[in-house]
Each structure stands twice: as structure tokens, then as C-alpha cells.
Amino acid sequence: MSIKCFAELKQKALEINEQFKVVGIWPDVETIKTAEQAKNIGLADFTFVFHEKIPGFPTIVVPNPQIALETGIDLVIRNEVDTLMKGLINTSLFLKVLIKSKLIKGWVSHTSVLEIPNLDKLIIVTDGTVTPNPSIEQKIEIIKNAVLCAKVLEITMPKVALLSANEWITPNLSSTYDAALITKMFERGQIECEALVDGPVSVDLALSEKSALKKRVALRFDPPADILMAPDLESAAFLIKSAVYIGKVSVAGVLWGMMSPVVLTSRSDNCGSRVISLCIAKIARGVIDS
Predict the structure, then answer these.
(1) What CA–CA distance (Å, rounded) separates 153 from 122?
(2) What pLDDT was estimated at residue 270?
(3) 109-252 in CATH: which number?
């Protein structure tokens, strides 16, 4: 049975009886609140890297955010902490320094895990953070990272919808060609990844079995999909932010493709979102090692 909600995800992370050490990079108020809650419930132990001491936590004092990030990366490489958590540091700078570091083990991409009201499952959306206009090869690696995230949620054969404006191959929409090609490669077994992949798929088809029946489209899986793969960063970001601010959806976020998943949430995300993101990163350690 897959993990269906954030409460189940949190419970599973708390059941892991291993110390989980996190370094918070240039924290804001919500990051510090997250660290306090994580410590109180036994989820994680925090060290901070900041320009001043954080009361109640070990703190490495440095002059600016870039040095803070470089210091945190070095702690992970030396196995003094398990992973990083982004605080009040510009995402572009965070990614620029991170991607050039020795933490990288593959293509870096981000997954947002959405808890949607009245839907009895979690939905993964990718990639709204790292690659603006991914190539076909990069999209395949992004899918693989999302499938790894699905494994954390105990989804054994994730259903992946390659999103576009509609389900037809359209001359002016290159995303429809990319989706059709990737789908065919998966059908042929040319991509080593355990997933059911179909595209191009519109959002309504990906999430609604009724829509698929009305449109008479036979997908390789029964909706709703587990993973929504957006054609580019901009559309993924729009989808995620719209879900949060219009649909009142809860969201957590993690970066993949490194020695260990890195917690990366929006600066506007609350403490609850960040705690769940920590849970994903903690569970993922065992998944990656298995």
C-alpha cells in the first residue's frame, strides 16, 4: 500500500530509529521553527550556518550565504551531516553552487509532493525548479528522479503522465513530440525505469478517469497519475503555485541527483511543508541505499 497522505509520511519517517542530521543554510524564521519542531518530535537534529548564532542550535558563523552553502556542502561530503536544507538564500545561487559541487551523482531535478483535498493519494509534480527547458535526454533523467521519489511514497509501479496542452501531437507544441517519443521508448523497454509512462497527456486526462472516458482516450494506466511531468520549468511552477494558492493544496519539496536528497522548499512555504520535506529526505536515505 502506498503512502496516501502527509500524516502517514510523517509517521513512517518518525519510525526510522536512526539519527538524521541536517544543516540549515542561512535560515529564516520558518526554517528555525522547522528545526525546533523536528528536534521536539525526534525527526532530525539541526546545525545552522548563518551570520550570527541561532539560540538553542549549533551554529557555524560565516559572512554571507554563498560561504554558508559551501560550508554546508563540505559538512555533507565529510559525512558530518546527512543533508542540506535551504533557508533564506536565493534559489539560483543555491543551485549554481550545489550543481558544481562534489555532491552531484546524476541529473539534478526537483519534485514537489502535493497533498490534495479529497484525493486519496499523493501527487508528484516535476520539475518546477532546476531545468528551464529540458531536452528529451534530460526529461528522461527527471522522470527517473521522480520515480525514485515515488518509491519513497511506496508506489511500486508509478503512473507517469507527460503533460502538454492536450493529448494530440501538435505541430506547434514540441512538448507533444517529446512526450510521444519518450512514451514509445518506455514501451520498447529502452529506458531502465520501472514506471507506466504515457504522453502527451492533458492535466484533466492525467487526473480524471471520467475525462479519459469522455474523450475516449485509452491511457497506459488508469487515472489519476502518480507523477505529473511538466514540459518545462515554467509550466511546472505555475501548476504547483496554482495548486497551493487556488486549490489550497499542501506541498513538500526535495532535490534529487545528489549524494542525498536536499530539502528545497519555497521561501513562502510554512513550517508544516518543510517538516514533510524533511520526512521525504529522511526516508529516501534507506530507499537510495537499497
Answers:
(1) 8
(2) 87
(3) 3.40.718.10
Residue type present at position 234: E
Q: What's the CA gap between 116 and 226, in Å, rounded?
A: 12
What secondary structure does DSSP assign to 22-79, as a single string? Answer: EEEES--HHHHHHHHHHHHTTS-EEEEEESS--TTS-EEE-SSHHHHHHHHHHHHHTT
CA dihedral 280, 281, 286, 290 (to 10 degrees): 90
d(CA 144, CA 95): 20
Q: Which three cell numbers stand for residue 89?
A: 538564500
User: Between 174-187 and 136-152, two packed helices, what is the crossing angle to 10 degrees?
Assistant: 60
- d(CA 157, CA 221) in angstroms, rounded, equals 10
Query: Residue 150: in which H helix or E strand, if any?
Result: helix 136-152
Of 9, 87, 5, 101, which is closest to residue 47 (Cα–Cα)?
87
Q: What is the pLDDT of residues 197-215, one digit of tens each?
A: 999 999 999 999 999 899 8
- As assigned by CATH, the class of the 1-103+259-285 domain is alpha beta
Whether the model clears a pTM of 0.90, i.e. scores above it, the answer is yes
Which residues of the chain are modeled with pLDDT < 50?
none
Q: Taking a C-beta distance cutoff of 8 angstroms, is the pair 161, 225 a contact?
A: yes
Q: How many CB atoms lie within 10 A of CB 2?
A: 14
Which triple of cell numbers denotes residue 91?
A: 534559489
Q: DSSP states of 2-27 as a string?
A: ---SHHHHHHHHHH--S--EEEEES-
Chain region(s) in the chain for CATH 3.40.50.10950: 1-103+259-285
pLDDT score at 200: 97
List all residues 6 or more positions away from 15 whose beta carbon is below 8 Å from its beta carbon. none
- CA–CA gap between residue 69 and residue 52 (Å, rounded): 15
Length in residues, the chain = 290
Cite the residue boundaries of each domain of the chain with CATH code 3.40.718.10.
109-252
